[in-house]
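Crash report, auto-generated. Payload:
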Amino acid sequence: MRYSQLFGKTQRQVPKDEVSKNAQLLLRGGFIDKLMAGSYSLLPLGFRVVKKIEQIVREEMNGTGAQEILMPLLHPKSIWNETGRWDSAKEVMYQFKKRDKEFALSFTHEEILLDLVRKHIRTHRDFPVKLYHFSTKFRNELRAKSGVLRGREFLMKDLYSAHTTQKDLDKYYFEVADSYMKVFDRVGLKAIQVEAAGGVFTKEHTHEFQVLCESGEDEIIYCPGGDYAQNVEIAEAKEGQQCVLGHGPLLKAKAIEVGNIFRFGIVYSEKMGVSFTDEAGKKKFVYLGSYGIGLTRLMGTLVELFNDERGIIWPKTVSPFDVHLVHIEDSGTEVWAKEVYEKLEKAGIDVLWDDREDVSAGEKFADADLIGIPVRLVVSKKVGEGNVEVKKRDGDQLEISTPDKLIKEFKS
Amino acid sequence: MRYSQLFGKTQRQVPKDEVSKNAQLLLRGGFIDKLMAGSYSLLPLGFRVVKKIEQIVREEMNGTGAQEILMPLLHPKSIWNETGRWDSAKEVMYQFKKRDKEFALSFTHEEILLDLVRKHIRTHRDFPVKLYHFSTKFRNELRAKSGVLRGREFLMKDLYSAHTTQKDLDKYYFEVADSYMKVFDRVGLKAIQVEAAGGVFTKEHTHEFQVLCESGEDEIIYCPGGDYAQNVEIAEAKEGQQCVLGHGPLLKAKAIEVGNIFRFGIVYSEKMGVSFTDEAGKKKFVYLGSYGIGLTRLMGTLVELFNDERGIIWPKTVSPFDVHLVHIEDSGTEVWAKEVYEKLEKAGIDVLWDDREDVSAGEKFADADLIGIPVRLVVSKKVGEGNVEVKKRDGDQLEISTPDKLIKEFKS
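Recovered output after restart:
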């Protein structure tokens, strides 16, 4: 894509109330736009990042045998009354009345999912059920100061599973945990699986996936050797205490929660009457699991972690483009750049070409650093016709290469 | 996919208040589930159909040079007040108050889009702007009796364009009209481009894309030769009147609106102060176009048009699977079917394999007809090892073929 045609250029100023690094950099880079506190549009650059994250999550969810669906966002009060969450979760839910009927906006989908199971599943042979969707969540957060880390409206992948036994739920629960670690690994994050409290969702302990980060809202106590990690909310051990396996003292650190998984067991299915007939012909309640990853939050986490004073540094797998092409305005170099652009695009490499006229090389370089595509290519008289100068966003080394060499490297 | 594992099997009964053919067949086929009046979940089969429609629409939108984004669904009252639509469209909008702030749910996105243009575009060189998204729309319809043809919550592709002149808007407007015709053609619909009134959207005439259908809510007067078509709401000519180009008498027919396009001109941009600096340094208002296709409505239209007494007949391009494989329960045929299944899947052909045990051949055939995948394959002792019996959903002819032949046909 030609940068001159891209909607959402780099910005010098960001709204004054944006204090988080992720919102500042995403707004300055032209990835998002702020509609109101806690609510953002994804501009083409941000949309591309989220779509790449989405595809990675989709592949890993499909890998667990889950099927993709889409559930509605507007829910009748009656269904939330079945579990009592119309009242117990009313702080976080957007609830309203229209033509004498009361509705809530989706802040999660357990009730809707259980209603599907109730209507479509008959016998034990129809289990397990594994369904997920990518959809919008609305949460009436008191404060919305963390950019896309905690929006009032945001994108989430939520997976739900229903099983005939606790044992089967447990088995799938840890399969999903593994698939989550794969997701985080693929997007470039080192996540720690942490025991935690269930918040408004459940009284049982749950697992969160936390990424160490100074700006995180959570705090965890963990063993550097990886055999213990709990959210401070429930932590039994203390910072500095020795790990029983000899990995040294436990550490305490701020972290961002990038995913969470819950075992609800039969709590909600009992309330909603979601049952099946077992092999002996007996009616039993369904065991429910629930598993979330916030897509927009994941994007924000990546920005919080991967940046420097000049801008964002995207991991390759979620970068909006593969390479950022800049030509320096000597006469003739635009033609050279166009050749490079077309050659790379034809080979399936996504190129953001800064083709703007009347913009200095310095400004183009600064914008490239702010946007943060992992590879920058420069075409100039100095570099010479047919060549490109290659620089990684996270390094300083300059290398001379050719489009053909680059294509080979990208394919390998 | 094995049908035994698919969530959302065929249903014998549908909710009593479902009078529309599209809802009845989609519910019975296991494509959708009804949450409440006018609101449906997409189950895996329905989700697949909508995703195929979405991808066709995306390709055609990208073909016009448009860029994909995602705008929020929850909007502040203030932005709707700028155009006066908070009041003028209040019947159709879901509006509510939360913590002393008023919000509306997205029923369209012109205001949000113009706000983006206002913030991100500076000079005439940044035009035209062409942005689209796939997102959820909420419309507080009085009646919701038409299944997915008129939901209270539904999926829509909306494209918006902003231009520096009426002429440039006109040019792109008709480019989009052409791309819409391509979309409808690709999903298997014969659409007629019809002049119409703008409803709550604009006082100007607009264009609708109508598909002739007895169950449609619209009525159009049109020339069978294709040179005149108007919605009866604004029609100047009468049924039976001779077409001036000699194509015979004008016809009147019921139709379903599958798309619409609007030229708002500067009406809203003037109200919202969305301007740019022209070449002479003068401030001018932006010309806005708006273009919609309802994805779920498109699915419903296909079902209304393509069905028989046994079920749905999907066009190839949007069918949830390429082939429906059934094996007849003689001993051994399951192994043969598995071989066919794996061979076709490996070749990139999407197979729905009805692998259920204890279900009669007759029931399997009835389900295959209800679900409506265009090609049915049967494996049985009679057909013989290594062979498949092929039947098109819209025909009666049975043919004997082999997986290899089928793969060749699919690839050609």
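Post-recovery validation: The radius of gyration of chain A is 24 Å.
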